[in-house]
Every structure is written in structure tokens, then in C-alpha cells.
Amino acid sequence: MMISYPGLSKLKTKPVVYEDVIAASDSGTLEQLKELSSKRKAIEDSINASTFITEAIAREMSGGLTSRCEQDIQKLEKYLPLLNNLIHHIIVNAKSRQVMYWITEFKLRWSSVLSTPSLFPFQGPKLYQVNDIYFELGMSLFLYGSLLREQALEVLSSDLVQSATLFRKAAGVYSYAAHELNTNLSWTQERPPEAISGVLSVMSLVCLADAQAVSARKAQENGSTGGLLAKLHYGVADFLVEAINILQGAAKECKDISPRFLDFLLCCKTVHELTSYKYHVQGLRTNGNIGIGIGILRWALAKAKKIIPKEESWRLVYHQVIGELDGLLQKYEHENGFVWHEKIPFVDDELPLPQAVRIVSPLPYHPQKWERALMFKL
User: How far is residue 308's CA from residue 145's CA, in Å, rounded to a whole number?
Assistant: First the structure.
């Protein structure tokens, strides 16, 4: 049972025409800059919904891909190698004042999906402008990771193995982006949450939590014991605890992070903790420790009922899980009262909780770079 945070790929951006900013010294370089602009425009048109091509034409242009998400992933995979090549040549010519001037003229503008919503939505999303080519790389990678995550959710109902792999791939992209931005992006301009290395690290952990949740579902289908399922779900919660701690630190750096995102993480963490407790107490009951199991259920439910998720769809999942534990508690209390008569520990007593086990890791992202010579007028 998973709680989703939809819309992470719903970024908006303003056009970038590279050949209007950078002066090429030969026709080959000019053509490559135009190709870079063309690849980016394909992404702009898609995420800005500024093109009206039919589904049939979009499918033909993508080589037969039917998913809009997969089509956008393909566009980014054509754009990012060209962008990496440009960044490489900018670094090579970093001592040139002319190149440094061009960089400040890019006027790279992106919206945010993780910032606090505007009080005036009719004005459209706020656009953050950061004149740094690494901002473009970071936002493109965030979009790429979000689309991979979206694709993982698309295939979740049909292929658990592929879904978990896509979540791990997205985690690798976010992790790489976090390292690149922390190392290279200027700190002098206001940035959206998506361009904060800490937030990108959080997204990587969220994707790992998703991948482990899918792996737990696969383990359940394969008939794994409740003890293993308890450890796997507690491992999901463990990923999210780490993410929450990092996000709270990132919030000091970026004041625009939406409280809804933290609410999402807290809700997910609690759902997987409760699911873990369910399997854990079932194992305790099987081993003759029903009293301890009842104590854990009472403690867990008392804590969980203090939290009320703000999103209606999250509340439905949350209350369903709480309902399952309530039913299990009533069943065990009734059974203990008539059969076992075991002593039930107080809430304040030290209770044996599940052990967190992590079984997934990011699939490392290795950026592609089309090594083509670029000659600038310096």
C-alpha cells in the first residue's frame, strides 16, 4: 500500500536559445548549438503543453513509444548528452571573460513543484531565474528522475521487478544531481527547492523507499514470512526517517519548501511503520508472545492517531492501515482474555520493535556526453 506525491514532473520552463547567447566561431559549432536548442525545445513544448501534435504523431516521432512519460524520458536522454558536452567546453574555456559573460546571459528560468503554492494561482507558477548552466543541468536531472519515478508508478501494477528497478534508477539520478549541484552551482541566487542538493538527496531516499516497498510487495507475493516483511517495511520507514532529517536541514537553506512535502514523508513513514508492526505482532503471536504484541499495537495506534494527513487520498490509505491494526488489536485482546491471559506491557515499557533492513541501493547514474568539438568566439 503506497502513498503517492503526484505532479513531480509538472515543471514549467521558459525557452533557451543557445545560439542566441553563445557566439560560435565555425558553422559546425553553430549547428550543434542549434541542435541543443532544438532538443531543449522538444522538452519545453512537452512540459509546457505548448504543442498540439496528436498522440499518433508523438508515438511515431518517438519510435513507437505509447507512454507520454517514456516519450519525455527519451527527449531528455537526447538532450542531456549535448548539455553535458556544452558544460565540458565551458569548463575548458572557464578563464575566458567572454564565456563567463555568456553564462550570465542565459536567463535560465524554471518553476517549482515542491515550493509553497502561490497565493495568486491565476498569475501562473513562480519562475526562478538562475544564470548558471549547472542550474539547467540540475533542473533537467530533477525532471529526468521524476519521469523515471512516474514510469515506475505506471508499471507498478503489471511488473514489480521493473518498477523497483526504475525507482532505483531514479534514485541514482537524484543522487548524482545532488552531488553535481553541491559541487558546482553558485549559492548567490535564489533557487527553487529542486535545485537544492539536500532536497535532491531526499528525493533519492524517497525513491529508494519506494523501491523497497515494491520489493516488500514482491516478497509478500512470493510467500515470505511475516518476520521478513516486518523488517522490509521498517526498512522503508528507515529510509524516510533519514529523508525527513535531511529535509529539515534543507528547509533552513530554502524557505520555499512546501509543508505538504514534509507531511507526505511523515505520512509514508507512519504507514510503513504500522504495516511493519502488523507483521511483527503476527509473528509474536505465533511464537506465544501475544501480550507483547498487544502492547505494541496499543502503543503504535496511540501514536499514529495523533497524526492527521492533510491530503484526502493519503488519509484514506492512512485510515485503512489504522483500521487493520485496530481490528487486529481487538482480535488479540479478545483471544488473550479468553485463552492466554498474558500480561500486557504498559505503553511506557520497552517494547521489542522490528529491526530495519535495507535491501535496495541506487543504480548509479553515468551521464552520457557526446564528445563533439565546440569552437567559441573568445
Answer: 29
Band the pLDDT of 181: cuts 50, 70, 90.
confident
pLDDT in tens, 155-165: 999 999 999 99
- Contact between 117 and 193 under an 8 Å Cβ cutoff? The reply is no
Rounded to the nearest integer, the mean pLDDT of the chain is: 91
Residue 157 burial (CB count, 10 A):
8
Q: Which residues contact 38 (CB under 8 A, 6 or more apart)?
A: none
Following DSSP, what letter does each residue of 127-143 receive, concatenated?
A: -EEE--HHHHHHHHHHH
Give the distance, in angstroms, between the CA of residue 161 and the centroid of all CA atoms in the same chain: 18
Cβ neighbourhood burial of 19 (10 Å; 0-12, 13-18, 19+):
middle
For 12, the 3-state DSSP assignment is coil
Alpha-carbon distance values, 57 to 154, 180, 194, 292 (Å): 22, 36, 32, 62
Summarised one tens digit per residue, pLDDT across range 291-338 is: 999 999 999 999 998 888 989 999 999 999 999 999 999 999 999 999
Q: How far apart are CA 294 and CA 317, in angstroms?
A: 23
Distance CA 233, CA 209 (A): 9
CB contact at 8 A, 262 and 247: yes
Contact predicate 358/212, CB 8 Å? yes
| Per-residue pLDDT at 1 | 61
Grid coordinates 511464537 are at which residue?
A: 287
If 0-12 CB within 10 Å is exposed, 13-18 middle and 19+ buried, where does residue 132 land? buried
Distance CA 141, CA 338 (A): 59
What is the Cα–Cα distance from 145 to 3, expressed in whole angstroms?
18
Say if domain 18-223 classifies as CATH 1.25.40.280: yes
CB 87 within 8 A of CB 133: yes
B/e letters for 331-343, b = 16+ CB within 10 Å, e = fewer, are: ebeeebeeeeebe
All structural domains of the chain with their residue ranges: 18-223
Q: How far apart are CA 31 and CA 248, in angstroms?
A: 45
